[in-house]
Amino acid sequence: MTELTSLILICCYELCFIGKSICKIWRIFFDNPLSTVLTTLETVHEKLIRLNVDGLKKIKNINWISIIIIIVNIMVTIISSTIWIIMQKHLMEIKDMVIIVVLNTCQCFCFCEYILLISYMKWMIYIINEQIPERKSCLSTFRDMYLEVIECLHQVNRSIYDVPAIVGFIGANVAEIILTIYGDLLFPRDYINDPYLVMSFIWLLMTTVNVIVLYTIGDATEKEVNRMSLVLHQRSLIEKNPRIKRQIKFFLLRRLHEHYHFELYGMCHVNISQLFSLSNKAVGYLVIQVLFKLNK
């Protein structure tokens, strides 16, 4: 059991380092595809402005809680990194501390960029969904914009941010949660004189919030995308034009066979139920380790 625990902890350490490195390198190689996605989203936004849709200037459906969390996340990362450097300056070399701080900062900004991008696309889908039952513009126009945003969402989750999100945003954060709880809080080497106890609690809270925010945004985006079927059905009930009703039926049939799932790399499903499953596994592992220590 001891060997297995050591192996798991070593894998967690390696995953934290590899995940943060991937976030930095991956973003450089996929800068051009991301620029293409942003250009497409800007074009859709300009179309919405020309259509003069309601609520476009209010932007009230963007998750402001997530934006506040992102700002706090950046501040905590900068402050905690500074405090950590001051506390570790006599124990580690400067170059090693700089590498760790750079990796943490790059992962933080990469995570914030991803969350803001997903929130922006979710808001655009919300605006489109709100306009379809209003019958103010041509249905095909909103359908085309909707498909463009969905295609951008697929590109972001399956080619641009797929591996960094799985390895960095989920894997590295979960590994850091396990390491912090196991090594700093449950079984610290020197609990009484541990000067890093407060820092451990802060880092644990930040990584936990990051995972919760990611899965919450993914779940909300998935629900908003799939709400298109409901608004199309509402439009079909009030529509009098047979040609438009026929378009709605065809698009509803297509939506029926293309139920959207918020997935990373086409295999990692990000929603609240998966978060509970992931939490149960992490908590189960920690409970087993506590029982093992108590019975030792």
TrEMBL record:
<keyword id="KW-0812">Transmembrane</keyword>
<keyword id="KW-0472">Membrane</keyword>
<dbReference type="GO" id="GO:0005886">
    <property type="term" value="C:plasma membrane"/>
</dbReference>
<keyword id="KW-0675">Receptor</keyword>
<keyword id="KW-1003">Cell membrane</keyword>
<keyword id="KW-1133">Transmembrane helix</keyword>
<keyword id="KW-0807">Transducer</keyword>
<feature type="transmembrane region" description="Helical">
    <location>
        <begin position="163"/>
        <end position="183"/>
    </location>
</feature>
<protein>
    <recommendedName>
        <fullName>Gustatory receptor</fullName>
    </recommendedName>
</protein>
<feature type="signal peptide">
    <location>
        <begin position="1"/>
        <end position="23"/>
    </location>
</feature>
<comment type="function">
    <text>Gustatory receptor which mediates acceptance or avoidance behavior, depending on its substrates.</text>
</comment>
<dbReference type="GO" id="GO:0007165">
    <property type="term" value="P:signal transduction"/>
</dbReference>
<dbReference type="InterPro" id="IPR013604">
    <property type="entry name" value="7TM_chemorcpt"/>
</dbReference>
<feature type="transmembrane region" description="Helical">
    <location>
        <begin position="98"/>
        <end position="117"/>
    </location>
</feature>
<dbReference type="GO" id="GO:0050909">
    <property type="term" value="P:sensory perception of taste"/>
</dbReference>
<dbReference type="Pfam" id="PF08395">
    <property type="entry name" value="7tm_7"/>
</dbReference>
<comment type="similarity">
    <text>Belongs to the insect chemoreceptor superfamily. Gustatory receptor (GR) family.</text>
</comment>
<feature type="transmembrane region" description="Helical">
    <location>
        <begin position="64"/>
        <end position="86"/>
    </location>
</feature>
<feature type="transmembrane region" description="Helical">
    <location>
        <begin position="195"/>
        <end position="218"/>
    </location>
</feature>
<keyword id="KW-0732">Signal</keyword>
